[in-house]
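Re-run with default settings, no changes from the original entry. Doing this only to confirm the output is reproducible before filing.
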Amino acid sequence: MLGSFHIRVRSSDGVTRLGRIKGKMKRRAWIREGDVIIITPWSFQDEKCDIVYRYTPPQRDWLRKNHYI
């Protein structure tokens, strides 16, 4: 967490990006270190992204069990 709804994210392609928590998620979903999230990279700045969704622990376990991550 970097403050002001910004977070450092390491994506599956190995790139570390500066993520911004979108307005709908700001107070509904708390993001912690080690969480699995969905991001959308910005088209004009590849080193930045928006955080769209955070998986819950049961969803994360299901993804790992079925070899999606």
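The chain is about 15% helix and 35% strand. The radius of gyration is 12 Å.
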